[in-house]
Amino acid sequence: NATYDSFAADDFGLLDDIWSVTQIDLLGAYYNGSGPASSANVWFYSDSVGLPGQIIYSALNIIPVNGLTTGSFSIMLPNPVVLFEGMYWFCVQANMDQNPYGQWGWTERTITDFSESAWRNPGGGFGTTCTSWQHRVTQCGVGTGPDLCFNIIGDIIPVELSSFEATSIGSKVELRWSTATELNNLGFEIERKERDIEYRKIGFVSGFGTTAESHNYNYTDEDLGPGNYTFRLKQIDLSGTFEYSNSIEVEVINELVFSIKQNYPNPFNPSTNIQYAIGNRQF
Predict the structure, then answer these.
(1) CB-CB contact of 173 with 231 (8 Å)
(2) Which residues are CB-contacts of 256 (< 8 A; sequence separation ≥ 6)?
(3) CA atoms within 13 A on the CB side of 226
């Protein structure tokens, strides 16, 4: 598509997951020459009323891991693109010289999923007036099959706990944890276990639902006596499903605290008052 700086794109939809897309496989072929292309450019767009909208990701001059000879490319993205629930468009462009290598074309398919594939040709080539995004076959008159052949490969992102730690301060334990991403995260129940007693819920911290950004959380468990305590997090989805974190053990040591305050009145004659404080009485 590079001769007139033309672009083809096709749409796809995500339901209720977050995808981290790492690879695109697509069928294509060279014509009017044997190729190969030197590299490929890729873009992901948001959907705008059935056509590509805003660019949300781009990667240029990617050398496919295979398929340069045949034109059916496997493209590894240099950085994953994180996509939430919704509609998106994928666009690819082969970088090559028409003379003597010919042109690269994206393989069509007769079945239409969602909207018909799109085309734009800012350079005005191929006898089309679609200088902005329009439907490729019905509006631009390019090709016959309404959709294009490609495969998206990646991972579904869960609630990813990146850290979980605890600090004992006097009779308190401060818990801190962080998430790298969250998917339908209702929140975290904080559970504590002491001696041979089973875990019990001691608090709850709300989550951020669905997000690809990192978030920090904290919870303080107070008025604890000396001893060893074990804590864990119960991450709960909006659907009610849950998953436990690793456990973390903390030792609480209540140190003796002694203080004397300034006497009053000062100077005094013939008596004075002195306030003092000591730690909890231990037996």
Answers:
(1) yes
(2) 278, 279, 282
(3) 9
What gap in Å lies between CA 59 and CA 24, rounded to an integer? 12
Q: Which amino acid is at 239?
A: S
Q: Give the three-state DSSP class for 99.
A: helix
CB 40 within 8 A of CB 21: no
Cα separation of 258 and 256, whole Å?
A: 7
Look at residue 129 in the predicted model and tell me its pLDDT.
74
Residue-wise pLDDT tens digits, 176-215: 999 988 888 999 999 999 877 899 999 999 999 888 789 9
What is the sign, positive or negative, of the torsion defined by CA atoms of 29, 32, 33, 36?
negative
Phi/psi region, residue 26 (left: phi>0; alpha: psi -120 to 50; beta: rest), is beta
**8 Å CB contact between 85 and 15:** yes
Tell me the per-residue pLDDT of 206-256, one tens digit each, with 9 for 90 and over: 999 888 789 999 999 998 989 999 999 999 998 888 999 999 999 998 755
CB 59 within 8 A of CB 78: yes
Q: How far apart are CA 88 and CA 148, in angstroms?
A: 14
What tokens were used for 234? 């119960």
Coil, strand, or helix at residue 47?
A: strand
Which three-class secondary structure state does DSSP give residue 100? helix
**How far is 123 from 119, CA to CA, in rounded Å?**
12
**Which residues lie closer than 8 Å to 25 by C-beta, 6 or more apart?**
72, 73, 74, 75, 150, 151, 153
Residue of 218, 233, 275, 226 lying closest to 250 (CA atoms) = 226
